[in-house]
Structures are given as C-alpha cells and as structure tokens.
C-alpha cells in the first residue's frame, strides 16, 4: 500500500489540485506515446545496424579466395551473418513490444475518457465551492455595508420610515449572508468528499500507469539482454573458430589445394640410338617426352 | 615446428611450384589489405550506431518533463548516452588497430620486395631447367635424326665422302646431346637445391603472415569483447536504476514538485457586524479575504 501522497498534497488555498492532478493523468498519454516512439527508434537503429552487418558479411565473402589466409574469410562471413541475425531478432522482438505499447496507449485513452466522466461531479464540486466562496464574500460585504448604512442613518436622525426601510435591507442582507454561509458549508463538505475520492482515484491511475510503463521497460530490457547474450555467444564461437584455425592447418590446406606435385625432376641419361630398333618401328622415340620436359608454355616469370 | 608442406608439395612435372608459391605470397598483401578494409567497415558501422544512439539519447531528453513518468526519461537518456560512448570507444580502438594493420601492410610489401630479390636465383634456376630440358629434348631428337640419316645413306650406298660428312654430323650431334645431358644434370641439382631453400622460405613467410593476421584478429576480438562487457554493464546499471525507480518514489516526487498545498478549505461562520468597531476604523473588514476565497481567476476547467 502506497502512501496517499495525492490525497495529502493537492489541497491549498489556490484550490487547483484537481486541475494539476487531471493534467498529470493526461500527461500519462504523452509518456506512453513517447515510450513507444523511443522503442521504435531503437528498433530502427538495430535494423540499420543489422543491415550494415549483412553488408559486412558480404564484404567478407567477396574477399580473395586465393592465398593461405583465404579460408579465414569464411569464419568472418559466418560470424558476421550471425551477428546481423541477432540484431534482426531484437528488431522483431521490439516490434512485438511496440504493438503491446500501442494497445496500452489505446486502452489508456479509453480509461482516461471514462475517468473524465467519473470525476465530472468532482469538477462540479470544485466549481461550486469556487462560486459559493465568491458569493459568500460579496454577501458578507453587502451585509456589512447595509448595517453601517443603517447606523449612519440612525446617527444622522433619519425618519422612522427611512430607518424601517434600511432595517428591512439589513434583514435581507443578513439572510442572504447566512444562506451563503450555509451553502458554503455544504459546498465545502461536498468538495472535500469528492476531492478525497478523486485524489485517491488519480493516484491509483498513476500507480497503474507507472506499473504498466515499468512492465514495458522490463520487456524491453529483457529483449536487449537476450540479444546481448546471443551476441556474446556468436563472439565466443568466432574466437573458438579462430583458435581452431591454426597456422599449420592453413599451410596444409594451401599445400593440398594448390600443390603442384610431390615428384622432383628425375635424372636423364644419354641414350644411345639403337638403329635397328629405331628403323623397325616408325621412329618410336619421337613424341615420347623426356622424364622432365619443359613444354615451353610454363615459362616462370615473376610479375 | 610445422611440417614442411611447401617443400613436399610444390614439385611435379609441370614445374610451376615456384610460380604458385610466389603468387601465394603476393596474395598475402591482398589479404592484409582486405583485413584492414574489413575492420574499417566495422568501425564505420559502429560509428554510425554510436551516432544513432546519441540521437536516441537526445530523443529521451526531449521527452515530456511533465507527468509522473517524466523522471524516468533521465535514466533512459543517461544509459543511451553511455551505450553511444561504448560503441565510440570501440571505434577508437578499431582505428588504432587499422593503423597497426597499415603498418603491417607496408612492412609486408617491403619484405616481399626483399624476398623477390632473394629468390631471383631460384627463378633463374627454374628458367634454366626449363630451357635446358627443352634444348636437351631437341638435341636428342637431332642426334637420333642424324644417326638415322647416316644409316639410311649407308643402306642406299652413298659415297664415302658423303658418309664421312654424315658421320661428322652424327659426332657433332652426339657431343651436343651429351653436353645437354650434363647441363641438365647441373640444372637439376641447382634447381632442387634452390627450390628446397625457397619452398622453405615461402612457407616461413606464410607462417609469419598468418601469425600476424591472427594477432590482428586477436586484437580485434579483444576490442569487440571489451565493448561487449561494457555494454553489459551499462545495461545492468539501467536495469538497476529502473528497479530503484519505484512507483511510490515517482508518485511522491510528483506530489512534492506539483503539490498545491496540504490545507483543506477552512470553516466559515457567520460574523455579526460589530458597528462600534466597524465605524471606529476605516471599514477594517474591507480587503480582508475570507479564509477560503475564490479569486475568480482559478476557474477549474477540464480541457
């Protein structure tokens, strides 16, 4: 149970407590719209970040497929794609949350409309005590003036007829004054009663409002935290993949994919021409390559 | 000590092992430039994210300062600003790292230039074994042709003078062939020796290159991880601040800042006009307000 702060603090001789509390309630609608806008902007930022990460992943996949380092780009690409996905997942969650906030915004507007009707009698009581107080003040002034007027006439020796007339006026002013004293007492009772109820109602509305806002923020935090954990996992996996990509494995992979062969050039010895064999077949030596033969195409050049 | 993969796998009868290894080394320059570009792009993404967060913090600080929820925006603003700062700190670290990568890129280019000079004799040995192999093949063919020509002439009963002439040609062709067999043996020895050294050198260069790249990636990961931890702390602080912002404290804060007063309207009773006092002074009742007086200005209206 929360201290009834509103019940305690919105009286005072200026009597605009009701006005302040009513407007405070209405500000709640601005707050919930602003919270919705804030989350939407965050979602937009996360979406842009995610798209940039997807582009960065493409950069990684467009990197040279040549050289010893080439296989590492695949690790970069995969990790960056996962990072993009994490942020896109956050966008999806925030968009869901925005829908919930929108629902609350509408619900809140409806509740405020209902509340406006419910506090209409309080507003009347406020306006009533304001006008009755004013009238009471005027009737009191009139009563004092009429009484002094009668006294003045008495001292100046006015006729009995004039004195009777003035007495009648005093009697009438007294009655009016007394009736306003009575009306004020009623207006005061009514006002206090209504204000007490309404101040409590307004505090209840604010409590409910702040609670709902806190729930939304809690959801927001949860989504952000989940994403943070996922990003941490992607990063951890990246580090692990990098650790598993040893220098030796990269050297080996290159040797396997680009290797030109394991055989060194063989020895070549002088072969005497055996005329009888050579003339038997159709020059069998012709076309048989040397064990090590340069075909003239592979002329190694350093660019 | 890493297995000498390059020494084992870059022979083969096509003899372009040197060429492949040399180009592989040169690809290393592309890789390091690409890594630098990748980190630069990441830094650009982080910078854009940070600037968007700064903008979002401004959105939070521009949110309504009215209503019960208003103080919460300050928590949003501070947290979002800190988030922006975390990402900007990452940008700073990545920019430092890019400078280091640039240094490596330059160093690497210099080393490759030096290596090009150092392997020049290997290139020569490659080109030599290529041309000697070709010449050997040709001289062998010539020797066979000349021998068969002499045999053909003998069978066709050529003059002694012509046979002597043909014999001289065979002798010359034999000498040339033999000399190329010898030259080939030398070229082969030279080539094997040079290629053995150079393949090892190239592997050493690749090992060094991959290690440097891994160091850079390690630095990159470290910066990303540090930022991740900082972001986690900011998020945790935000959650804690939200938890500390109780509904009661917000209600109390509003009551304190917007409260209109604690005093309820007082009772007003009928006051009889005391003529003797009233006429003594100059109408002292006039101007003295009622304990509860509506001044007509505060006319509570619901908008």
From TrEMBL, chains A, B:
<dbReference type="InterPro" id="IPR031160">
    <property type="entry name" value="F_BAR_dom"/>
</dbReference>
<dbReference type="GO" id="GO:0005886">
    <property type="term" value="C:plasma membrane"/>
</dbReference>
<keyword id="KW-0472">Membrane</keyword>
<dbReference type="GO" id="GO:0060028">
    <property type="term" value="P:convergent extension involved in axis elongation"/>
</dbReference>
<dbReference type="GO" id="GO:0005905">
    <property type="term" value="C:clathrin-coated pit"/>
</dbReference>
<keyword id="KW-0168">Coated pit</keyword>
<dbReference type="GO" id="GO:0048488">
    <property type="term" value="P:synaptic vesicle endocytosis"/>
</dbReference>
<feature type="region of interest" description="Disordered">
    <location>
        <begin position="276"/>
        <end position="303"/>
    </location>
</feature>
<feature type="coiled-coil region">
    <location>
        <begin position="87"/>
        <end position="118"/>
    </location>
</feature>
<feature type="domain" description="F-BAR">
    <location>
        <begin position="4"/>
        <end position="250"/>
    </location>
</feature>
<dbReference type="GO" id="GO:0072583">
    <property type="term" value="P:clathrin-dependent endocytosis"/>
</dbReference>
<dbReference type="GO" id="GO:0048268">
    <property type="term" value="P:clathrin coat assembly"/>
</dbReference>
<protein>
    <submittedName>
        <fullName>F-BAR domain only protein 2-like</fullName>
    </submittedName>
</protein>
<feature type="coiled-coil region">
    <location>
        <begin position="170"/>
        <end position="208"/>
    </location>
</feature>
<dbReference type="InterPro" id="IPR027267">
    <property type="entry name" value="AH/BAR_dom_sf"/>
</dbReference>
<dbReference type="GO" id="GO:0098793">
    <property type="term" value="C:presynapse"/>
</dbReference>
<keyword id="KW-0254">Endocytosis</keyword>
<dbReference type="InterPro" id="IPR001060">
    <property type="entry name" value="FCH_dom"/>
</dbReference>
<dbReference type="GO" id="GO:0030136">
    <property type="term" value="C:clathrin-coated vesicle"/>
</dbReference>
<comment type="similarity">
    <text>Belongs to the FCHO family.</text>
</comment>
<dbReference type="InterPro" id="IPR054713">
    <property type="entry name" value="GMIP/FCHO2-like_FCH"/>
</dbReference>
<keyword id="KW-0175">Coiled coil</keyword>
<dbReference type="Pfam" id="PF22699">
    <property type="entry name" value="GMIP-like_FCH"/>
</dbReference>
